[in-house]
Amino acid sequence: MLELRNVVKTYGKNVRAVDGVSLSLPAGVVGLIGHNGAGKTTLMQMIATIARPTSGEILLDGVDIVKKPDAMRTRLGFLPQDFGVYPNLSALEFMQYFAALKGVRDPARIRRLLELVNLHDHADRQAAGFSGGMKRRLGIAQALLNDPDVLIVDEPTAGLDPEERLRFRHLLSEIGFRKLVMVSTHIVSDIENMAGRLVIMNQGRLVACDTPDSFVQRARHQVWSVTVPTEDYEALRAQVQVLQAQRHADGITLRIAHPSKPLAGAVPAEPTLEEALMAQRYAVRDTAQLVV
Fold it and tell me: Which of 13, 29, 89, 292 is deepest in the core (most CB within 10 A)?
């Protein structure tokens, strides 16, 4: 169990990057959501003992890791957003190097992890020639070398193509059956089908923590679908919260967030998780997407 008690991180005199966050997180996949600058990375750095809180407590199974950082470091795997590889090393040599740094002396474990991340057939290739997805998978493999109880991954699918993103999400879901996996992202679809709990931050503060199903349930009867004439679209955007717009021969079909029926002809629509968060003002997208 990871527990945060009123955690604060202040830079300078007045900038609170994290402002009084309290959480209790058991094993499973946790999605940490918020715009850039919301405080996600700072919070994860404090959990990873890279940064020290200005005040508050962070406990792992009851041990204060601010006072005893090794209690976390020996049980932690961490994959930052900007993870680099050594271009002259093969995937196997890269893993052997990190295994030596972490005191892991089991060659068979290195092979098993390369197989887990589907890189065993590329073990002898130089990592410089890997795709972005392959490099991210290699990063996960090194993060798992010490068999951590806590895995922290920052913006895991940044720069990946759709197939690599799907493979990476599946891998993190499998790991989450056994460990606490914290995934920081501003892309809701990255964690929609794998996170058991969502933590939403805004301006350094925790604004919500619940299951995806609970967010969606609360948004039912707040998301509506209606088709309007094309010429009415721009005016309606100024009047209601348009989540999505799709143009077709008969006009434009809108998905709208509103606590009651917003227009004649509007019918309730089953919200996606992203729409549910937007309907409840946990905004994750600045503007509606017009699909032509």
Answer: 29
Residues recorded for the chain = 292
Domain ranges of the chain: 2-210, 217-291
pTM (predicted TM-score): 0.86
The answer to whether the CB of 86 falls within 8 A of the CB of 97 is: yes
Residues 58-112: tens digit of each pLDDT: 999 999 999 999 999 999 999 988 888 888 999 999 999 999 999 999 999 999 9
Please tell us whether the domain made up of 2-210 is placed in CATH 3.40.50.300: yes
What is d(CA 10, CA 17) in angstroms, rounded to the nearest whole number?
6
Q: Would you state the pLDDT for residue 286?
A: 46
Q: Which residue has the higher pLDDT, 288 or 52?
A: 52
Q: Per-residue pLDDT tens for 213-239? A: 999 999 999 999 999 999 999 998 889
Confidence of residue 284 (pLDDT cuts 50, 70, 90): low
Q: Which of 65, 40, 48 is nearest to 205 (CA)?
A: 40
Q: How confident is the model at residue 210 (pLDDT cuts 50, 70, 90)?
A: very high
Helix H, strand E, coil C: the string for the chain is CEEEEEEEEEECCCEEEEEEEEEEECCEEEEEECCCCCCHHHHHHHHCCCCCCCEEEEEECCEECCCCCHHHHCCEEEECCCCCCCCCCEHHHHHHHHHHHHCCCCHHHHHHHHHHCCCHHHCCCEHHHCCHHHHHHHHHHHHCCCCCCEEEEECCCCCCCHHHHHHHHHHHHHHCCCCEEEEEECCHHHCCCCCCEEEEEECCEEEEEECHHHHHHHHCCCEEEEEECHHHHHHHHCCCEEEEEEEECCEEEEEEECCCCCCCCCEECCCCHHHHHHHCCCCCCCCCEEEC
Dihedral sign of CA atoms 157, 160, 165, 167 in order = negative
